Amino acid sequence: MTSPVTPGLVIVDKAGGITSHGVVGRVRRLAGTRKVGHAGTLDPMATGVLVLGVDRATRLLGHLMLTEKAYDATIRLGIATTTDDAEGEATARTSAGHLDEATIRTALAEFVGDIEQVPTAVSAIKVDGKRAYALVRAGEEVELKARPVTIHELTVHKVVSHAAEQVPGDPAHDLDVVDVDISVRCSSGTYIRAIARDLGTALGVGGHLTALRRTAVGPYTLDHAKTLEQLDEGFAVLPIADAARAAFPAYDLDAEQAQEVRYGRKLALPLETLTAVFAPEGEFLALYEPAGEMARPVAVFTG
User: Fold this and answer.
1) For the chain, what percentages of helix, strand and coil (3-state, to nearest 5) are there?
2) Furthest CA-CA distance within the chain
3) Is 43 considered catalytic here?
4) What reaction does this enzyme carry out catalytically (predicted)?
């Protein structure tokens, strides 16, 4: 087994067909520790940036999950599915061939900004102590409440109309569908599948995702990511101090302040938001946030 690595983040470019938990399992073996977690699940169908924490850095993950994310996706208009993506069964088919690009762009523009979004039913949200996706798979009806999310930017790259693949015995085998390639930059908690579903509903034709690739989680992009195959060849961890400086504003302490942090005490620091604080020699000590005229520890990473 590989010797335990230093605490830090592993940025994975997840392939399609593997679960986020499966990626965690692979990284646990490579890191030589079971203390590995991830900052936000990717569906098996989805690919792209999955941020993992190793050892003490797992405590950073809850804070990283609150950062904005970016995605590339393809929406197919004309078919609604049970899961709002291509892994589900079709529930409705309506020709979308009459939709022009201008109409689609106008409809998508309505999703930009602060909106109320009903999460997709096949999600990890808990309902009465059980995951929503587990209830759906058990045949139960799941109704989730709308949640506030923010779509900072939504760019339409391409709109293509074509005939759907023929389905034997399906009277709508000559259905015209429209594929829409988009990029989205959004707040944590946004479901891109729900955008596909809601766009289809708004246009009266149904919709689902056929492809989803996460391109960024906070400051970590595909440029920082390695595939599992690349990690097998050379395991790479972003040290916890570098990870904290990249993800949060940084404040360098003097020796006396650093000692106070080790005791978990409040400090008189001029902070404006959640901030990573460092010892004079560069060691990452804690996350602090403003608290009136003082700053209080949110998480201390020493010891």
Assistant:
1) 25, 35, 40
2) 76
3) yes
4) uridine(55) in tRNA = pseudouridine(55) in tRNA
| Architecture of the domain spanning 69-217 | 2-Layer Sandwich (3.30)
pLDDT tens digit sequence for 57-114: 999 998 887 789 999 999 999 999 988 999 888 999 999 999 999 999 999 999 999 9
CA-wise closest residue to 217 among 102, 46, 101, 55: 46
Single out the residue of 242, 250, 276, 241 nearest to residue 261, CA to CA. Answer: 276
Closest C-alpha to 2, from 26, 19, 37, 38: 26
Among 43, 72, 176, 198, the active-site one is 43
| pLDDT attached to residue 2 | 47
**248-300: CATH class:** mainly beta
Summarize pLDDT for 136-178 with one digit per residue, the tens: 665 666 677 899 999 999 999 999 998 876 555 555 556 899 9
Q: Calculate mean pLDDT across residues 188-216.
A: 96
Tokens of 290: 């403003």
Please give the CATH number for the structural domain made up of 8-62+219-240: 3.30.2350.10
Domain with CATH 3.30.2350.10 in the chain: 8-62+219-240, 69-217
